[in-house]
Amino acid sequence: MQQHQGQHSHQVLAQALGVTRSGFYAWRKSQGSHSPRKQAQQSLDEAVATCFRLSKGRYGAERLLVDLTEQNRYHDIKTVRASMKRQGLMCQKRSPVLKQQPSWQPPKRTFGFSVADYR
């Protein structure tokens, strides 16, 4: 539509494409700039993604919130979680720690006598 707007009026082009004139203007307005809220959201998403990459994907929302606070970016934990969810960022889960059997076993207590003495 933008290619042909010099040749035809917006009304003719809108009718040819089957859209309303007001719909075209609303679309054109949305293409130019984003709302302040959307811009702040994109800025937060970039900051969260950067902190997440720097932590090698190990930090969750709580630790990312601490990193963002150190950068003087103050947000709620829910906002950081929502940003991570929007971007599909999930921290790595810790691998379970396997309990190993100790190689050294303490000696059994006999209290100076054995059971054989009382049989």
Comma- or semicolon-separated keywords:
rod-shaped, 119 residues, 0% strand, 2 domains, mainly alpha
Written account of the structure:
The chain has 119 residues and is mostly helical. The protein contains five helices and no strands. Helices cover 50% and strands 0% of the residues.
- Largest sheet data: none
What sequence of helices (H) and strands (E) makes up the elements? HHHHH
What percent strand? Answer: under 5%
Number of helices: 5
Helix content: 40-55%
Let me know the number of strands: 0
Unreliable runs, pLDDT <50, ≥5 residues?
A: none
* CA-atom Rg in angstroms: 32 Å
What would you call the shape? rod-shaped
Give the terminus-to-terminus CA distance.
106 Å
Q: What is the averaged pLDDT score?
A: 81
In total, the number of domains comes to 2
> Helix/strand-derived class?
mainly alpha
Compile the SSE list and pairings.
Layout: H1 10-17, H2 21-32, H3 36-54, H4 61-70, H5 77-87
Helix pairs in contact: 3-5, 4-5
Question: Could you provide a short overview of the structure?
Answer:
The chain is mainly α and 119 residues long. The chain has helices at 10-17, 21-32, 36-54, 61-70, 77-87.
